[in-house]
Amino acid sequence: MMEEIKVEKVDKRKARPADGELSFGRTFTDHMFTMEYDENKGWHDPKVVPYQPLELDPAAACCHYGQTTFEGLKAYRSNNGALLFRPEKNAERFNNTNRRMCIPEMDPEFFVQAIKEAVRVDQDWIPAKEGTSLYIRPFILANEVYLGLKPSSHYKFVIIMSPVAAYYPQGIKPTRIYVETEYVRAVRGGTGSAKTGGNYAGSLKAQSSAADKGYDEVLWLDGVEREYVEEVGAMNVFFKIDGKIVTPELGGSVLPGITRDSVITMLEDWDYDVEVRKISIEDIAQAYKDGRLEEAFGTGTAAIISPIGELNYNGLKMEINDFETGEVASKLYKTLTGIQTGKVDDPYNWTEEIPLD
Amino acid sequence: MMEEIKVEKVDKRKARPADGELSFGRTFTDHMFTMEYDENKGWHDPKVVPYQPLELDPAAACCHYGQTTFEGLKAYRSNNGALLFRPEKNAERFNNTNRRMCIPEMDPEFFVQAIKEAVRVDQDWIPAKEGTSLYIRPFILANEVYLGLKPSSHYKFVIIMSPVAAYYPQGIKPTRIYVETEYVRAVRGGTGSAKTGGNYAGSLKAQSSAADKGYDEVLWLDGVEREYVEEVGAMNVFFKIDGKIVTPELGGSVLPGITRDSVITMLEDWDYDVEVRKISIEDIAQAYKDGRLEEAFGTGTAAIISPIGELNYNGLKMEINDFETGEVASKLYKTLTGIQTGKVDDPYNWTEEIPLD
């Protein structure tokens, strides 16, 4: 159905950092995957080529009007090869973003096949140390050479890969979160549920301002009432109140996280009451005052589970679970990373193996 | 204060299209201006070089997280050289955007000097035919090679230039506008008042959907109540109701247009009552029904003045001024383009001359 993926290998491989010297997103593998789109040919010319700079005309649409999509997932080294975690969900979200951004969709099976082929070629780059992984970043840039504002007629699809350190080298650890009441990340009718650059660019100011106050991230409130909890940093957010688990409904302005979806499934499987609904920050504050706020944590591809140790809402500093990682966060983290790395049984068939040479 | 601008000229100039064959934003001049930023040196290495592709590492921040700024202005050929229109206002807005997007500011005088030097080098490219101009596009791309989400530590500033046709080859002409009630462009607390890619990417879907219905552009309503008028397409919007001119207040989600500001000044100077305030779409519809909606038009750098001939709000098709360009729109267009091209006296000192060789 799709063209064969050509492979052009590097003459000389780069030096690979030792597993113990990895960080996040600074080192890239020897190769990258690229594919082009134009209105006549559709997506075409898929290939794995040496990692190299993109040549963009300075009038390319993406340099001006932000018409871009990205995704993020990880490959873990397993006993027999490499494991991907629910890559078909990335493909689905990728196309949802593409539709919102007027970018042509891609065959979801081919999207996954492209990822697998890129990982296969650079398989030596998948680190083996506990907690490490190969971070995979597929993205699309609109590159028609035109300054008029319209959906581009040309696009470039690229997959780059970066071996990354364990997110928690000293074990999972709570963060301090500032509830943002001035800046807004997204609003219904906008692009909040799409994985596109503009949402992230718009979040930098609040993040910087929280960092200046000594906080790790912000908790975003909705853009309409500025009352309902949406996301934490670039992650989805969960609360444990009175033994129940509560997480914001998606509602068009929240990113549909794959970790979020997996966590909901696991919690329901573990017989927790999971409520997916609007949650006001005032209710969180009240639950805290009443001693009913038992846990809070973020979920995302990078950290998997990120416990929240403090929430600062207009000066009310809510310390949660004595700034310790809670029981639910702990169990989710252990089980989910276990499934992702193939060390724990995968009853959901979430992982997909890439056979390596 | 700033470094001297180096100039490296092309060996062989490109063929220039004839003034009568120009369009918008597809043809670019022989040269471009570039400058780099890093945390140690600040903005440095300003130069005019041959127009050429940008080499971006595929992990450059702008390819993923949309941390970008742009501006737009025009140079018109005049009797003694070229005229810029209020470039210091572009410099001011550029820095406002930069602050919102966590991008380092630039000395506003140097910003204008860079534009003048770029135009001077490519002065042969300024077309002469009535209504034509040299469109100037300054922009910044974040280009730190890092997949972590944070303000970049490296940036590239670029100015490209494109000779453009008259916006109205057959004279100023009304457009059909669809009032958008599903998609939202911006919300207070967001990035709506910044000239950054994400706002424009987010607008494509509504624009495409309006085009499918046979409309030229959308009228955006506010993101909170979805009731108050914000912008039309990528322009500011004005209404004439009962002889008074009404335009939306900026309020954080509306782009502070330089044409908008100039139009307000001129209208007040002409003794119109100008009200800068919230305007609900229901009030517009009521004024239409009562026969009090006399004119409507957009303002922006590309079209200068764009009369609105029809507004479709939930099926109510409001034909305005019999689909003819109104008196106010007409007079504004004539006067403003006259000032910009040096053909009409400039009582506001808005134009700035670039002496040419």
TrEMBL record, chains A, B:
Cited InterPro entries: Aminotrans_IV, Aminotrans_IV_CS, Aminotransferase-like, B_amino_transII, BCAT-like_C, BCAT-like_N, BCAT_family
EC numbers for this chain: 2.6.1.42
Example GO BP: branched-chain amino acid biosynthetic process
SUPFAM superfamilies: D-aminoacid aminotransferase-like PLP-dependent enzymes
Matching CDD domains: BCAT_beta_family
Pathway where this protein functions: Amino-acid biosynthesis; L-leucine biosynthesis; L-leucine from 3-methyl-2-oxobutanoate: step 4/4; Amino-acid biosynthesis; L-isoleucine biosynthesis; L-isoleucine from 2-oxobutanoate: step 4/4; Amino-acid biosynthesis; L-valine biosynthesis; L-valine from pyruvate: step 4/4
Catalytic class of the enzyme: transferase
Protein name: Branched-chain-amino-acid aminotransferase
Protein family per UniProt: Belongs to the class-IV pyridoxal-phosphate-dependent aminotransferase family.
UniProt xrefs under PANTHER family: BRANCHED-CHAIN-AMINO-ACID AMINOTRANSFERASE, SUBGROUP IIII AMINOTRANSFERASE
Alphabetic keyword roster: Amino-acid biosynthesis, Aminotransferase, Branched-chain amino acid biosynthesis, Pyridoxal phosphate, Transferase
Catalysed conversion reaction: L-leucine + 2-oxoglutarate = 4-methyl-2-oxopentanoate + L-glutamate; L-valine + 2-oxoglutarate = 3-methyl-2-oxobutanoate + L-glutamate; L-isoleucine + 2-oxoglutarate = (S)-3-methyl-2-oxopentanoate + L-glutamate
A GO MF label: branched-chain-amino-acid transaminase activity
Cofactor(s) demanded: pyridoxal 5'-phosphate
Residues with the N6-(pyridoxal phosphate)lysine modification: K195
Top-rank lineage group of the source organism: Bacteria
